[in-house]
Amino acid sequence: MTGETAGLDFGLKTFLTVSDGTEVISPEFFKRDSKAIAKANRSVSGKQPGSGNHAKASTHLARLHRDVVRKRNDWQWIEDLNLKGMKALASGPSKVALRKWP
Fold this sequence. Notes:
- This protein is mainly α and 102 residues long.
- The chain has one domain (8-98).
- It has helices at 29-45, 52-74, 83-88, 93-98, and strands at residues 8-10, 14-18, 23-25.
- A hairpin with a 3-residue loop joins strand 1 (8-10) and strand 2 (14-18).
- Helix 1 (29-45) packs antiparallel against helix 2 (52-74).
- The longest helix is centred in the middle third of the chain and has 23 residues, at 52-74.
- It is elongated.
- The mean pLDDT is 78.
């Protein structure tokens, strides 16, 4: 592609669309991992505070949250967007809220 210009568009339905039509699908880490986080949270709440099992379950839950944060940071992009206006759209304010915005 030497000497050619490419246009890039970051969006909600697709993470990235290149001017040649190539699309990169938006990863939805929290949506996919929320079931595991909910299960780990229930596990922590069922353990006796101060016990070894509670500590292990808490560590597991913290690791799940850390992994989601790291995944989101890997897909962070910077763009000047009107986030309030995007959240007001009927197409899904939760999708806007779950994206990693600087």
